[in-house]
Amino acid sequence: MAYRKLGRDSSARKALFRSILTSFFEHGRIETTEAKAKEIRGLADQLITLAKRGDLAARRQAIASLMDEEVVRKLFGEIAAKYSDRQGGYTRIMKLGTRRGDAAPMVVIELV
């Protein structure tokens, strides 16, 4: 299997990723489970690479992937400029320990 299903069908998984990515770019770092963070990492890197292109088609693709146009403006304005000279590897995952309720491994994913 090439990806984690996370106990959801495809539409719920897509909505979850859109929500997490929007929060991630809005705040710069989020706390989530390790499995979700590992799935989000590649999608976030793809969106930053898209933002580095900076053209209208790239902006429309980003708007389709994220839930908030203000976050897209931040992605194309601040975040893309910050990583203009970097070739990938825009995110970092740091382990925190386990969640108290179900012992799920928790991590912080943040922009480098």
From TrEMBL:
InterPro entries: Ribosomal_bL17, Ribosomal_bL17_CS, Ribosomal_bL17_sf. It holds the Pfam family Ribosomal_L17. Gene3D superfamilies: Ribosomal protein L17 (3.90.1030.10). GO terms for biological process: translation. One of its GO terms (cellular component) is cytosolic large ribosomal subunit. Keywords: Ribonucleoprotein, Ribosomal protein. It comes from the Bacteria. Belongs to the bacterial ribosomal protein bL17 family. PANTHER family: LARGE RIBOSOMAL SUBUNIT PROTEIN BL17M, RIBOSOMAL PROTEIN L17. Part of the 50S ribosomal subunit. Contacts protein L32. NCBIfam families: L17. This is Large ribosomal subunit protein bL17. It comes from Schwartzia succinivorans DSM 10502. The lineage of its organism: Bacteria, Bacillati, Bacillota, Negativicutes, Selenomonadales.
